[in-house]
Known about the structure:
By secondary structure, this protein is an alpha+beta fold. Helices cover about 35% and strands about 20% of the residues. It has a five-stranded antiparallel beta sheet with strand order 6-5-4-3-7. Strands 8-12-11 form a three-stranded antiparallel beta sheet, with helices on one face. A two-stranded antiparallel sheet has the order 1-2.
Amino acid sequence: MLPVPPDATVLAVDGTATPGGTVSQGPPAGDPGLGALLPEWLPIWVVELTASVVVFALAYVVARLAVRLFGRRLARRFDRPSLTRTALSGIRALVFLGAFLVVLRINGLDLGNIALSVTVFSAVVGVILAPIVGSVISGVFLLADQPFEIGDMIQLDEDGKRGFVEDITLRYTKIFTLDNTFLVIPNGTIRDRDVYNFSAEDPRTRLSLPVLITYESDVGTAQRRIEEAARKVEGVIEGGPSIRIGAARYPAAPNCLIESFADNGIALTLRFWVRVPYRIPAVRSQVQENVDRVFAEDDDLEFAYPHSHLVFDETSGALSVDGVGQAGNPQRGGTRPQVRGQGRPWRDGPTDSAGSPQAGEDVSDDDR
């Protein structure tokens, strides 16, 4: 040991100041340190790694026990499955966060150093994490606004995709489509879309089918036969109490109404209710098949379609298209047709250089 003046202050190895004494080269008395308790052949990093693994293993066990302990209580507390799943995920995250802090402490890192490192790191990767943070915030709003729930059937307006909501997390929403595929949409994107929910209050859905009949058809018979055709389809509500939507009530049975008097016929609209939303395409197709069969069997009913009727009278002039040139000579070029008599009567016979009848010749009605 080295002598030290009496009035000097010595900084010991363990960071404590000792006035007037000697400089100690070892750990303070009573604290032999972790290395003194281990064999010399065992590296300290092996011990730290083993302790970290044990901590994470314990965290996994504790997280499972916590989910099993609080799972049913949270399910009874919240009516929505999405909130229950989010709460259980939060419990797991808190347990593993505590384990992560313990592991950092085992490896000699304290919160001060971590805070400084996170400040510098966040400035670098802030742009990269921005979309993820946006999706998390949107997920919080989705859980709060409750536009749809797990198990609901929804449709995306842009591409018409339909499916059942499989899971709602803070980052994304998973949809199980009717084509037996999974569609994963970030919450930041789905909040900007128009979403139709077919299962929010009542799974029954009303559909409309336009039908155009001719003016010669019997409108009353057409309405009655169209309604009967819809009732025969499985999945269509045949009748019963009126279905309430908001403050309005609508008849449950199929109902055919006159929409308008169009140019080519009378426009009818068939309105009918479907029991389950996932069979909408099949039910609509069957209803259209039945309506087509009814019109084919009834001679008094006919579908209208756009058509044109051309009328020629004495003001229309005469038109002749053939392959004969002037004065009965074949036209140069073979069979190229020639249009004669545009806007005026024309007949075969002697003509002048202009191709019109010579002076003094009469043009009869038969020649026109």
